Structures are given as C-alpha cells and as structure tokens.
Amino acid sequence: MFSTQAVFWVQLCMSPLQLIYAAVRTLIDVICSQVHGASKLRSTRKGNSATDKLMQKKLTQPATTPSSVNYHFTRQCNYKCGFCFHTAKTSFVLPIEEAKRGLKLLKQSGMEKINFSGGEPFIHKSGEFLGKLVQYCKEDLQLPSVSIVSNGSMVREKWFKKYGEYLDILAISCDSFDEDTNQTIGRAQGTKSHLDNLSKVREWCREYKVAFKINSVINTFNVEEDMRDRITELNPVRWKVFQCLLIDGENAGEDSLREAERFVISEEQFQEFLERHSSISCLVPESNQKMRDSYLILDEYMRFLDCRQGRKDPSKSILDVGVQEAIQFSGFDEKMFLKRGGKYVWSKADMRLEW
C-alpha cells in the first residue's frame, strides 16, 4: 500500500499525458465494475456459456421469423405425468406486464400464433393470469391465433364466459380412454376422473365457440390401445399424437424430476399405433425428431430452448437481448416446422366450424 506522500511524488514525476491515461483507465475500470454488477442481477435469465461463445457466429445467419411460439410461462402442475418434459423445477412466473412486453416483442418480430402451456397454465391465479394474456394477445396484439394446452382439470365454465371469445384453440391432453391407464401414467389428481373433465371441456368449447383439440403422448402403457371410436365421438379439429420423448434434466438423467425411461417406445411401435389410427383424418403425428427441431419454445424466463441435443439449452431472455438475437439459439428448423404441418388454419374465424 503506497503512502499519500509516495503517491504525490509519483504523480509529480508523471507527464500530463500519463496522468490523462491513468484517469481514463480508472474510469474504464469503474464502468466495467458497474456493468458486471448489473449483469449479475439478470443472471437467472441468461443462457449457458456456449451461448456467449456462439453469439457472433449465429448473428450472421438469416433472421428467423417466430410465426408460431409456445410459451411455457409456468412449470407448476397438479398432475404428475411420468413422461413430462417440462417439470416443476422452478415456481417462477414473470410479472404480467413483463410477460406482455415479451409478447409484444414477439409480435413485432412476426409472431402470428401463440400457444400458452406449462406445467398447467390454468393453475396460476386460478386461470386469471392466463385469461389476461389471452385477451391481450387477441385484443391488443391482434394475433390471428391464440391457443392453450391444458390437462383440463382446472378449466371452469366461468373462464369461458369471461375469456372464451379471445381464444381460438383449446387443446386438452389425454393419453388414454381408460381411467386406470391414466392413473398409471400420472395424468390424474386423486380419484377425480380425467375423462369426465375432458367431456365437460369439450362441451364448453362447443358452447363458447372455441376450437377443440386433443394431444396424446404414446408410451408403453397406451401403445396397444385403440382410440378410434372415442376420438371420432369427441371430433377434435386436430389430434396431435406424440412419441414419448426423453429430455435430460427434465424426465431423464440425474437432475430430473421424472424417470421416463420406462415410458419410451420404439419407432416401430409408434408407427404401428399410427397405422391402427390412420382412418382418423384429424390425426397429426409427431415423432421425436420432429419435436426436437420444429418447435419454438419459450420457458418461464422467456428464453428459447434448444432441444436438439436431448436436453434444454436456453438462450438469453428476449426481454434482455431481443427476439432476433435470442432466437438464433433456439435450434429451430423452419423446414421441419412446415413439413410436420406446423402451419395450418389456426384462426377459428377461418375454420368455418359448425358449432
């Protein structure tokens, strides 16, 4: 540590140019320290180190248009499906004004369709948070399509009365038409009937003019099931049929909250299920490869998730760096998106449904 006198004599011996240089270096050090401190406050919304290394290279690529985005704004859920690949690892939900800001950024970048998912999207504030976002996207942002994926257990008719007019599509997850199978999978809450909820929601969709859709994950416990009669009876506009997918850190691996390995089926088993149901015209198959490459997924921090390596590698948040910078790390394959039928008639105004 120099004494005050020593510092004085050193400064006296320095030229004016050296003094200016020293002052500038000190100012730079102070600014860098402040920037570093501010960046730490945003650490929960950052991606991994690979994001920074690839940033400049990625930004030279052509811009991707986020025409259809899946926003998993909450990880909380009242079900415990054994193959869930977006588990309750946090309880974080953005303040609604921040969520709206992010949605507006997406709209300005070309988003036409938003799909709200979870977790269970109706669980946060009993569906009010979700309802306000749905209304904002349709009324303020004027998006052609607003949709939701839900397990159906927490949907209430009063929600339809208040927000149904702003919703284009409601997809209900249903993996089996056998209650015991649903219990085995974990798509249940206590002794409540998942299938009774499914039927009620189907009727509300018809009454409040919301297009009804069904999502099914095909796994070891339902792969032999014949669902043709029930799907025909429910008459969804689309029946999404997914192959059970492993995601490291979510439903597989040391840090996961699920052990989905026992649910995994082979490509051959998946194809046999598809062939058995080939007479269902609304069936839309989703193999593992299609799912990994062709979805734009935002997590609860509004970070794009790249699933190509069998895990979820996050970008930085669009709230911090903007959509075009973050989307470069999404792993999104637009050709695969179009090939799997990701672009379809997704506005209920254009579906010409007979309610």
UniProtKB/TrEMBL annotation:
CDD domains for this protein: Radical_SAM (cd01335)
Broad class of where this protein is predominantly found: endoplasmic reticulum
Single Gene Ontology BP annotation: innate immune response
InterPro entries: Aldolase_TIM (IPR013785), Elp3/MiaA/NifB-like_rSAM (IPR006638), RSAD2 (IPR026372), RSAD2/Viperin_antiviral (IPR051196), rSAM (IPR007197), rSAM_sf (IPR058240)
Cell compartments where the protein resides: Endoplasmic reticulum membrane
Origin organism lineage: Eukaryota, Metazoa, Chordata, Craniata, Vertebrata
GO molecular function, a single term: metal ion binding
Family named by the database record: Belongs to the radical SAM superfamily. RSAD2 family.
Name of the molecule in the record: S-adenosylmethionine-dependent nucleotide dehydratase RSAD2
Gene that this sequence comes from: RSAD2
Organism of origin: Esox lucius
Domain Radical SAM core: from-to ranges: 63-283
Keywords: 4Fe-4S, Antiviral defense, Endoplasmic reticulum, Immunity, Innate immunity, Iron, Iron-sulfur, Membrane, Metal-binding, S-adenosyl-L-methionine, Signal
GO cellular component: endoplasmic reticulum membrane; lipid droplet; mitochondrion
